[in-house]
Specification:
This protein is α/β, with parallel strands linked by helices. It is built from 9 helices and 9 strands.
Length: 286
C-alpha cells in the first residue's frame, strides 16, 4: 500500500489496537499491546480486527474529499456519531500532555486553565478531569458536538462540571470574554480540519489562540502533518515533542507518524506586536 494511501486511511479512521498504549523513546512513540484499566467509564479502544474494518469503512466513506472546514459536514456526521478519536486515543494524547500540565501547575502554583478547541466527540476532557485538571473549557462550533461532550462526561462521572461552549475555533473572540486567559490550549487534529479552509482560516485560529494564552501558556496540537505549522509569520515558536508511529496494515508498509507540536508565543517587540494586531484585524475581516 502506498504511503499517501496509508496516511489517508490512518488519518480518517482514528482506530487503534485494543489496550494499546504509548511508550516514549527519543521523539518516537510506538503502540504496544498492554492491558490497562481506563479511568472511570472511559470507553475501550477497538481490537485489531475492528481497526482493519474501520480502515476499510474509512476508505469508502472518504473516497471523495470531505468538507472538513464546513459546519454542515460536521452537523451531518454528529447526527449519528457519539464518540470518535482522531489520530490517537485520548489516553495516548494525555500521556504526552500530562508532563506539560504538571510543569504548568508547578510554575503557576495552581490548577492550569485548559481550552480545548474543536472538542468534537472526543473524550479527552474526561482524561483531564480524571487526572485532577477540572478547569476545562471545551469549544466546538457544532451544537451536537457540545451535546455529545456533555453526555460523555456525565456517562463517565455522573455529572457535568466542565464548560462547553458553542464557538468557532477561527472566531473565538466572538464567544469568549476578552479578559479570559488559558494556560494550555489543546487541539486534537482540529488544525488539520481548519487548514482545509486555507491559510486565512488557519491564521484566524492561530492568532486567536495567541490572544487567549496566559503569560507562560502553551498550545499543544496533534496533527497528521509533518509541516502543519510551516506558515510564514506564525506568531509561535514551534517544536515537535512527540511522534506517534501509526499501526501498519502490512509488515513492510513504510513508517508513518502523527506529530504532536508544542507552540509557545514568540517574544515580540512593540513593532511586531502591532503587526500581530493588524494581522488579527485583517484575517477577522476576511
Amino acid at each position: 500500500m502506498s504511503r499517501p494511501m496509508r496516511t489517508f486511511l490512518i488519518f480518517f479512521s482514528g482506530a487503534e489496537k485494543k489496550g494499546a498504549f504509548l511508550t516514549k523513546k527519543p521523539n518516537v512513540i510506538k503502540f504496544q499491546d498492554r492491558k490497562r484499566k481506563p479511568h472511570g467509564k472511559i470507553r475501550n479502544i477497538p481490537n485489531p480486527l475492528a481497526t482493519f474494518i474501520s480502515y476499510i469503512i474509512s476508505l469508502i466513506q472518504f473516497a471523495m474529499p470531505a468538507d472538513f472546514e464546513k459546519q454542515s459536514y460536521w452537523h451531518e456526521r454528529f447526527k449519528s456519531e457519539t464518540s470518535f478519536e482522531w489520530l490517537a486515543s485520548s489516553g495516548s494524547f494525555m500521556a504526552i500532555i500530562e508532563p506539560q500540565l504538571s510543569e504548568l501547575a508547578r510554575i503557576k502554583g495552581n490548577t492550569p486553565k485548559i481550552l480545548q478547541l474543536g472538542s468534537g466527540t472526543s473524550d479527552l476532557q474526561n482524561y483531564f478531569r480524571a487526572n485532577d485538571y477540572p478547569d476545562v473549557t471545551n469549544v466546538d462550533y457544532e451544537p451536537l458536538a457540545i451535546e455529545r461532550g456533555r453526555q460523555l462526561e456525565e456517562a463517565a462521572f455522573g455529572d457535568v462540571r466542565m464548560k462547553y461552549i458553542v464557538a468557532d475555533a477561527t472566531q473565538i473572540t466572538s464567544s469568549l470574554p476578552q479578559d479570559k486567559r488559558f494556560d494550555l490550549v489543546v487541539d486534537k487534529s482540529t488544525v488539520d480540519a481548519v487548514s482545509c479552509g486555507g491559510t486565512t482560516a488557519f491564521l484566524r485560529m492561530a492568532l486567536g489562540v495567541r490572544r487567549y494564552l496566559a503569560e507562560g501558556g502553551i498550545w499543544i496540537s496533534l496533527s497528521y502533518s509533518s509541516s502543519r505549522f510551516d506558515i510564514e509569520e506564525l506568531p509561535f515558536d514551534v517544536e515537535v515533542i512527540a511522534k506517534i508511529l501509526t499501526p501498519k496494515l502490512k509488515e513492510h508498509d513504510p513508517d508513518v507518524y502523527h506529530h504532536c507540536y508544542l507552540l509557545r508565543p514568540k517574544p515580540v517587540d512593540s513593532q511586531r506586536e502591532e503587526w500581530y494586531r493588524d494581522s488579527w484585524r485583517s484575517v477577522i475581516k476576511v
